[in-house]
Hints:
By secondary structure, this protein is α/β, with parallel strands linked by helices. It has 9 helices and 10 strands. The protein has helices at about 5-10, 20-30, 65-75, 110-120, 170-175, 190-205, 215-230, 240-245, 250-270; strands at about 10-15, 35-40, 80-85, 100-105, 125-130, 135-140, 145-155, 155-170, 280-285, 290-295. Strands 3-2-1-4-5-6-9-10 form an 8-stranded mixed β-sheet, sandwiched between helices. Strands 7-8 form a two-stranded antiparallel ribbon. Strand 5 (about 125-130) and strand 6 (about 135-140) form a beta hairpin. Helix 2 crosses helix 9 and helix 6 (about 190-205) crosses helix 7 (about 215-230). The longest helix is centred in the C-terminal third of the chain and has 20 residues, at about 250-270. One of its GO terms (molecular function) is SUMO activating enzyme activity. It holds the Pfam family ThiF.
Amino acid sequence: MDCQKRLRESKILIIGLNGLGAEVVKNLALSGVKSITIMDETPVSIADTSAQFFVSSSEPGEGRAKASKAAIQELNPNVEIKIDSEHISSKPTSFFSQFTAVFATDCPLSVLIRINKMCHENKVHFYCGDTWGFYGYCFLDLLKHTYAKVVPKGSKKESEEAVIDVLDYCPLGPALGVKIGAGLNRKINKVYILLNIMNNFREMHNHYPAPENRESELQLLKSVRTFTIQNLGCEDNKVSDEMLSSVFGELSPVCAAVGGVMANEIIKGISRKGEPIHNFLLFDGVTCTGVVETIVVRD
């Protein structure tokens, strides 16, 4: 099937419409997918207006998804924008079978793992990501993914040919459950460790660190850091106090960078054209760098 045809026939589910989710939706709507279904009943707050450009301060209390629909539709009237007001926890496994790809953000790790599992069972591509201050990540589970890539042909640099390649992915849970020395490189990027810290923080406290309670939340973060480093088996503290102090709130430039990559990966996954990330992208906004880490756990 033609790459553009695959894209035009694709149905995307977006779970979470924070700043990162808005960037992903914007790029997907402009790319010309068939439909985008959005789930996020979180009431719009003043904090949302710092990075979620589809909402305004005049819409406090309304669900993010509903408040954003009109603005998203204006981007591309040819893309069907649907709002699903049910909570993701109420959805059965069969619900995900209708979609080509699912992207989730602003969710606890336990919810991400559950969604990933149901996508896996339906052979649906799963993507997730988040940003915290200057840092962020993308994760992909494309199952067993076949794609076309362009490589040099023979020794002639000016000549190229398309070849078919295959990548094996694993779900998020196993990819985050690896310990140093048991499959995880001791030189693992510090943002991977931060990702685990932030996931643990949210699971323990039911929210990401709140800017309005910066001092008390920072102390909790340090405690979670100690727990996380011990759990991963890290010998040194790669995540400094300074790094922890830079994880509060959403920053538009970071959302734009991570969201742009995430949307591009979804498009590549659907079109099967171009080599996708395998399987983490870890973004450091302080140094403006992104690192791909491959952490795949085999059955």
